[in-house]
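Lab notebook, bench 4. We co-purified these components, and the gel suggests they stay together. Before we commit to crystallization screens, I want a quick structural picture of the whole thing.
Request: model the full complex, all chains together.
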Amino acid sequence: MTKYLVERATLTDGSQSNILISEGVIKWVGHSVLPVEVQDAIRVDVNGAIALPGLVDLHTHLREPGREDSETVLSGSRSAAKGGFTAVSAMANTFPVADTAGVVEQVYRLGQLAGFVDVFPIGAVTQGLAGKALAELGAMADSEARVRVFSDDGNCVFDPMVMRRALEYVKKFGGVIAQHAQDPVLTVDSQMNEGIISSRLGLKGWPSVAEEAIIARDVLLADHVGSRLHICHVTTAGGVEIIRWAKSRGIQVSAEVTPHHLLLTDDYARNFDPVFKVNPPLRTQEDVMALREGLADGTIDIVATDHAPHPSESKECEWQAAAFGMIGLETALSIVQLTMVESGLISWSHVADRMSLAPAKIGRYSDHGQPILPGSTANLTFVDSGGSWKVDRDLMLSRSRNTPFHGMELPGQVVATFYRGEPTVLNGALVRGTRVS
Amino acid sequence: MRHLLSASDLTYSEALKILDTAAQMARVSEGPVKKLPTLRGRTIVNLFFEDSTRTRISFEAAAKRLSADVINFSAKGSSVSKGESLKDTAQTLQAMGADAIIIRHDSSGAPQRLADSGWTSSVVINAGDGTHEHPTQALLDAFTIRKHLKVGVGDLSGLTIAIVGDILHSRVARSNVTLLSLLGAQVILVAPPTLLPLGVESWPAQISFELDSVLPYVDAVMMLRVQQERMNDFFFPTAREYSHYFGLNADRLALLKPSAIIMHPGPMNRGLEITAACADSARSVIVEQVANGVSVRMAVLYLLVAGAPDENGESLA
Amino acid sequence: MSIALSAVDISRALTRISHEILERNSGSESIVLMGIPTRGAFLSQRLSIMIESIEKSPVSVGTLDITLHRDDLRLHPIRALVPTLVPKGGIEGKNVILVDDVLFSGRTIRAALDALGEMGRPKSVQLAVLVDRGHRQLPIRADYVGKNLPTSRGEIVKVRLGEIDGADEVLLEPEGNQ
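Here is the predicted assembly.
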């Protein structure tokens, strides 16, 4: 196995170090004296780029099986590596739905075959995402994919009894239910955040309360049965407040926020361009600020992309006919730098926590989110925080083009990504033919 | 301005220019020969994704009085998915050399998508999109109000206009609030709280839940159509209760100033939001609104389609 | 730049045209003066006053906006419309005299003839202009001419009238001089 010596990396404490990688693990981190074994190592000079543990996404739509026209495990893996990720979590709303051991194992194997990141399938909570009967959660947990995160994402587990049973059942293997918090009755045909802009545009509103009511119910349920609950893509100030309260009560709840909800507001709907149509919807500036604050103080544990690829015909149409969702793997780190680091809300060590350590812990991805120390699995991301780049949807590695950030100048470029000791990205470009057994 | 997508596209002077031009067009409609050669050789497409015979024939009459070639394209019931058909249809019309596309769509924002997308270089005129806007309806309402209450000249300052009914789902209300307030009128929205959109306080209008307390102060009262199906979504308990509190009837007619006029964008639900006695009373200008619609649409077509865009790409500036 | 007509010249020309109109139409009873905005409308007003002072009886006068009938609409940004005012008696069976400031290509008059056709059927249509500068592109001629002014195609004839320009004069400007 090839050895790599990453030179002039900046650790999150600000010190500059060289990192020796061999046999898939970090062998040595240091500055002054180089050990003998670096002699035959390939040297990778990252020129002061910040070293982060490889990023972990807990919320990714890879679309395979079923919608390979918008994304495949391979294309999504490449996109993830380019964005600095070493692990992604493939959501269950595929065709067929990932509600059996067979489907999750297939997705897991496709991920291993692609070899750019670990692809951890998320299992459906209910059969066919229909919200009625529990899927075979145990079989998925015991499968080769070792599923620990379950979600009906796209749909809310609305029936409180089904939700209660799911929360209880996954305790058997340390699983977690990731809830898409959206009261379906309050959001029939909803198109965008309900507020001044939706009223003006005549687009059916999606009230904050539809999200907050489910979060409130589920933290109480999780408290009652003593289970782990994860709230997907929190978007409202009220949601942050409820989670803060729940955590103060010791309830085992974790929460995520997407990069787009940290930056964009419902104001972007004004021109009716459906690239800004997303579920849950973009909210107000007040919500954006509350989400940033929640992420900074740890109320929100992690950033997750909710990378949702769609073919162009699903967005080149009227707003109401368009699909919900945005791609985000390749822009996530830059948006976090822009909204959280450059605003002074968090440091790079917090970025490491929110985008790697914490999501790995929630998903029980033991080889990920480890500190940059000898002995850790060599999943690493190096970001040139001083660099900037212009987002071009046509240059995305994702098979889809639906980025809301097209044309924006963003800070921070991923210059290198190491996945289990092998580079997937070098000099800011994907390393072709990367394969890890 | 190159397209007419929303009443908020209009500046004060542009709005007045359209009304003044419409006044000239009205003379043509009143003359013995109702035809002008102005748009001879131009192709205007009525692209209707939603049934609306009244609006379509109004635009058709306007275009024909200006000698344009009119193609009526009813896309409703097309088997292609709606998203695909908007783009495909736009490109088809572009290939056929449409100078202007008048679009009616059940999806809010569809006209803006058409104008912004690059699928067509035609002038786009919004003939009603979802629950968003219906700018030519607002223009014809403003024209009608001005004719009756301001002797047909200038703006609408000093006038108070009530818009009554389902504001939440009304594109007519949205366009009218913007345009009438732009022209200096004071607008009062009257509806049950369930039929007012969240954030309506930010609109340039006053809000009231009490029709009776508003009527004595208004110069014009505009009744909006109430869809029967709203009852199923709990917006109000029964049609009878709605009529009782928000319908215009003979008793309420008596509360109006002698000069006040009654308007309705049509089609009316007689007996629900307005009684026949009110709709047919001497105060009612509902039939005249239809005639004015043709003049206003002639003006819009003339101003947006007849000339060449100026150096800024604007047709109406 | 040279002065083609002075204020006195203009006044004299209009007086002469007034007499010619009366002579040709055997009085003012059957005539309707229709001025083409902007300056043609002012000229028709002046002619009507002169004719009234000669005849001691009122003359029908109106304005005719020809914008919607122009054949060059699509070549220029849109123009605002000016009111068309038809006198009370209408034009049916009348001798309509179109009044304009300058006769050049003839296209304005063609548009005016079309516009008139929409109002009814006059007995005859005649044309009075202050200046005829030649270069006709259509088979149109004036019945009453204040002054025939030989010009080259590129020269600019500028009619200024007291009502809006502050003074009465007709200027001839060389090519390209705005």
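The beta strands of chain C are 2-5, 31-35, 60-63, 95-103, 124-132, 144-148, 156-160, 169-173. Worth comparing against the SEC data before the next meeting. Chain C has a mean pLDDT of 93.
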